[in-house]
Specification:
Elements: H1 3-16, H2 20-43
Helix pairs in contact: 1-2
Length: 44
Amino acid sequence: MRLIPQCITESINLENDSNSDMTGVVHLYIVGNRVLFKFGRVAR
């Protein structure tokens, strides 16, 4: 479960940067990973 906080801190660091488009991609990536993780556990 250490990967999720790491992704959140990385997205926060990106939010501090000027490139806002990248933060949107990172947030979508995090949400996608959570959805895939939940579906993966349900499938098992």
